[in-house]
Amino acid sequence: MFNRISRFSSTSYLLLALLFIYLPVVVLVLFSFQDGLLPVFPFNGPSLQWYEKMLENERLVESLYNSVLVAVLSSLLTTIIGFLAAYGLARHSHRFASGIQFLLMAPLMVSYLIIGIGLLITLNIFGIPKSLVAVGLGHMVINLPLCFAIVYSQFGDHLKNIDCAARDLGASDLSTLTLVIAPIMKPALLASFCLSATLSWDEFIIAFLLSRFDVTLPVIIFEMLRAGLTPEVNAAGTMVFAISMALVAVSAVVMFFNTRNTG
Amino acid sequence: MSDPILELDNITKKFGRFTAVDKVSLNMDPGEFLVLLGPSGSGKTTILSMIGGFTVPTTGVIRIHGKDMTTVPPAGRPTVTVFQDYALFPHMRVIENVAFGLKMRKFGKRERHKKARESLELVGLGDFSDRSIDQLSGGQRQRVALARAIAVEPVVLLLDEPLGALDLKIRQQMQQELVRLQKRLGATFVHVTHDQEEAMSIADNIALVNGGKIEDYGPPERVYLRPATLFTAKFMGENNTFEGFVTAMDDSSISVDSEIGECTLLRCDSMHSSTGIGEKVHLSLRPEQIGLGDGNQGNLINLGQARVEEVIFQGTHRLCRVVCQDEKEVRMLLRLRPDEKVKVSDTIQIHAKRDDAVLLVR
Amino acid sequence: MSAKRDWTRWAVHPAVGFTLVFFFLPLMIMVTVSFWQRIYGKLEATWSIANYAKFFGADYLRDSLLNSLEVTLITTFLSVLLAYPLAWILAYRVPPKWQKVLLILAVLPFWTAYVVRSYSWLLVISENGIINATLMAIGIIQEPLELAYGRSATILGFVHFFTMLLTLTIYANLVQIKPSYQKAASDLGANRFQVFFHVTLPLSIPGVAVGAFITFVIAIGDFITPQILGGSTEVLVPQAIMLQVSRAANFPMAAVMSLTLTVVVVIVYLMVQKHLKMDRI
User: Of C231, C3, C271, nearest to C127 (Cα)?
Assistant: First the structure.
């Protein structure tokens, strides 16, 4: 009897929680196919008209391109310097190792908003105009600690020995890095690239503060929201959501199925 | 005698204030199998790491083939290390692992794969070339690591507790294979372990390391049967040691009054020369060196009556803890033959051969 | 022949240099600017604490800090309350082969579409959103309920977001607890509630602490959720900061508020530091 009640309440809680988590998402996706002017009941669709309208919106398409550019480039650079830092720190017993680690992780403690404001004030003081480059640099600041941490967590003593073994067998610095360490680290590098691309793709506040004419997709969506609720926003939102999902799915698959082999 | 292939000349390694290795000197002949044996933290791995070039000594010189190698990085030395966790490259197949060192030495693909196959055959894994590393058992990984190391034909092969992670049975099998391989290649091996049985079964020479120093050095038999120091006597398997002091000595013999009574030993080891009358010493007797019956002949030591406190049957022998029935109540460990059926509370008469007893000054 | 200069020794430098230039330098500049004044549209290095005095002196500004703290603490508390049972059910009531799938399902929207997620709640709770539409269709209410644009809407958006995060950290902690502890406790006579309160709950505190801390840090600095869902009924610190930046271009004041938020986070970090020892989440 007790078990049945417990199972029933567990299942109900689980379903209610999933309902709570997915309710807004489902509504968003559903009303992006709305055949009408408002993204609210009653649902008249399905129709693809808002997707068509979205693709005709030049500013939106341009911002989509900007978002992809910023996400890919900033994530690539972040992954590279994060990997190098993790490798350098794992390989040499630095006198300041814990200090360097703290320094690299410090941006995690500070809100995106404040990182953005700091960069904004700095640009302003030095008279540097806002730009997509600034947005990319801001995204690198927030993603570097994560990339570093993901890669660094994979550098155990085991990998240190592998590094020693490669050199012992005659490999140079460069061949050790390219033939041995980087291939072993491939899952972690991919995961860190995907994670930072996801976060950059989604990031609003830094992009909002540091961009001027060329803006990213979340900023455009925010601007569209000010004009009121329309199914076009739903369509744009659904697209952002779908691409994020794909990136997350790739990194989840990479993480789950590959990291265990290095141990 | 040929020139030493490896010379450690007075090497010291300090980590901050801690001295891990303290003025160690050691010479190795070509084709020798040396085991660095010692408890964990004794400095044996640091010595190996300095030979391999992963650690630079604070002072002292390391020579290989007479050439100063003290600060040469690992890649520039004719040494290769087999790591405790094997350090196989998980993203490469077996053959690529074994051929890696040759690739770095710019061997063409055909030649390096041929040589790699030969190495794999030497370790009995000829058919495993195309396996991936995670398809191998612990023992197989061990062999691949070995094959990878011997493929580049090192002058000295360094093994850092390579058998530590294996099951007892595979470990014993691998010990024998290591020896066979080493003799077949005629190579020089330095092997680190904390297991004294492993050391005895594979070594030509054992260097017993303790507190960063070489405590004892010599062939296994010598180190086991005639330990140079109290630490060696206790570390190399179970032992009975008895405190005492020197009462008399002349050119051929030395008399000691100890917990097991007065006895006179022949002087044989040179180190006893520094001993003086009244000096505190220890006598050592292995458990199997104590037998039943009284010992009143000239070359035996009578250990008197003892009461049996505990008997553990171990198949090949019976391990007994006994306590002597005199005022000192000295305890001893005996290893009796299985057919010597003693029981707890029995009173037994025990003795030892005088020549078995070892006088330990340190 | 000595060991040749090894460039991997310098591998850590690009990251350190980048962090110093693009993270620490701006923070330092922000600290500096917080002591300046904006006079006739221009920044002047006046070196006074006037901005700080104004922030903590003016009611509406100080209130934004109190509002932020209240909203963030309520958010953290409610999120833990919702997430813990969910994580517990996933860890102990769901068959192992389904756990990973359900966990991913339960936290997937966390990673996605930051602006869009807040906005999509509007579709649910706004005046003609589906909740009001449903209730009116059934006839329970005649007039739409005022659900959106207020503190409770902000908290709803936050709780939705952070329940997912906390489920992840608490679940990761729960599955690390060895079942033998719970078995030993029940073997020694504890009933299932005693096992939970004396073994499971104490051992899962690190997961709660890590998740709650991240929740706190992100929530207190978030602009979008209160801006989209909360409307203008009350102002939280991030909104106040954005007002200073966008309307007044008053960087010194924005700097003061930003630094205050950072200090609050650091204080909270120091308070919970000893619980934040979870290796892998």
Answer: C231
Residue B356 DSSP one-character state: G
With a CB cutoff of 8 Å and minimum separation 6, the contacts of C58 are: none
pLDDT in tens, B269-289: 555 556 677 788 888 889 988
Q: Residue A33: name the closest of A231, A199, A241, A182 by CA.
A: A231
Strands (E), chain B: 6-15, 18-28, 33-37, 59-64, 67-68, 79-82, 156-160, 188-193, 205-210, 213-218, 240-249, 253-258, 261-266, 280-285, 290-292, 300-313, 318-324, 331-336, 347-353, 358-360
Q: Is the pLDDT of residue B1 over 60?
A: no
Measure the CA angle with vertex B174, ends B96 and B4; round to 5°: 85
Q: Which helix (H) or strand (E) holds A44?
A: none
Q: Which of A103, A139, A115, A143 is nearest to C255 (CA)?
A: A115
CA angle B154, B159, B162 (to 5 degrees): 135
φ/ψ of residue C228, rounded to 5: -80, -45
The answer to whether the CB of B360 falls within 8 A of the CB of B284 is yes
How far does Cα B194 stand from its chain's mean position? 7
Residue in B closest to C6 by C-alpha: B73
Going from the C-alpha of B230 to that of each of B219, B227, B245, C80, C186, the distances in angstroms are 17, 7, 14, 62, 51
Whether the pLDDT of residue A56 is over 60: the answer is yes
Q: Quote the radius of gyration of chain B (alpha carbons, Å).
A: 24
Mutant choice from A113, A200, A254 vs C, greatest count of C C-beta within 10 A:
A113
pLDDT band of A7, cuts 50, 70, 90: confident
Q: How far apart are CA B284 and CA B7, in angstroms?
A: 32
Closest CA to B46 of B213, B197, B189, B235: B213
Task: Provide the pLDDT confidence category of residue C4 given band limits of 50, 70 and 90.
Answer: very low
C85 touches C169 (CB < 8 A) = no
- How many Cα atoms are found within 13 Å in the side-chain-facing hemisphere of A82? 32
Whether A49 has a pLDDT exceeding 90, the answer reads no
What lies within 8 Å, CB to CB, of C228 at 6+ separation is A225, C115, C118, C119, C122, C157
Q: Which residues of A touch B73 (CB under 8 A)?
A: 167
User: Any CB–CB contact under 8 A between B73 and chain A?
Assistant: yes
- Rounded percentage of chain B residues whose pLDDT exceeds 90: 45
> CB–CB of A184 and B90 under 8 A?
yes
> B180-189, B337-346, C122-131, C226-235: which has the highest mean pLDDT?
B180-189
- CA distance linking residue B350 with residue B336, whole number of Å: 11
Task: Tell me if C223 and A221 make a contact (CB, 8 A cut-off).
Answer: no
